[in-house]
Amino acid sequence: MTATPPDLAQQNPKNLLQYLNRGPMAIALIVGLALLAYSNIFQAAFVFDDFDSIHENESIRWVSPYWQILQPPKGVAVQNRPTVNVSLAINYALGGLKPQSYQALNLFIHIANALLIYVLVRAVVRHYPLAQALRPHAGWLALVTMAITSCLAS
Q1: Neighbours of 23 (CB within 10 A)
Q2: pLDDT of the residue at 17
């Protein structure tokens, strides 16, 4: 008979951490922490370089020729960053100038990155016994670091 999470917590708090570190539970925990950390972004408006990069940037408006998306205008934050400009063009096509579509894509990218770090750290530390202590914390540490360093939550 397997123990339920409350039984594990009563026996040893470390067992609860191990339970939370299991695949689906860890993924749910990372996604839940991401949604909590970024819960205020959907009320935010465009700020700082968003005006030059989005409002003033004609290259994201899917004008002909299409390769112009890969050549952002000079003097804006996305200059020499074609991947970011393509992301802005996709966002503009989906939501126009509404900041929520840009924020939703950024949130998705942050969650995907946190899950990728979680998977990579679990795969790597499996072969290094000294690094085992980092394994249960990889996903949420990556997520919290991204939340702290990101201007998304401004």
Answers
A1: 10
A2: 54
How far apart, in Å, do the first and last CA atoms of the chain sit? 48
Model pTM score: 0.66
Classify 79 as helix, strand or coil. coil
For CA atoms 111, 90, 99, 47, give the dihedral sign: positive
Cα dist. 83→34, 135, 137 in Å?
Answer: 23, 31, 30
According to the model, what pLDDT value does residue 55 have? 83
Helix axes 23-37, 13-20, angle to 10 degrees: 90
The residue ranges of every structural domain in the chain are 25-149
Q: Is 19 exposed, middle or buried (0-12, 13-18, 19+ CB in 10 A)?
A: middle
Q: Using one digit for the tens of pLDDT, what is the confidence trace for 87-118?
A: 888 888 888 888 888 888 888 888 888 888 77
Amino acid (1-letter code) at residue 1: M
**Cα 89 from chain centre:** 19
User: Is the previous residue joined to 5 through a cis bond, with omega within 30 degrees of 0?
Assistant: no
Phi-psi region of 48 (alpha: psi -120 to 50; beta: other; left: phi over 0): left
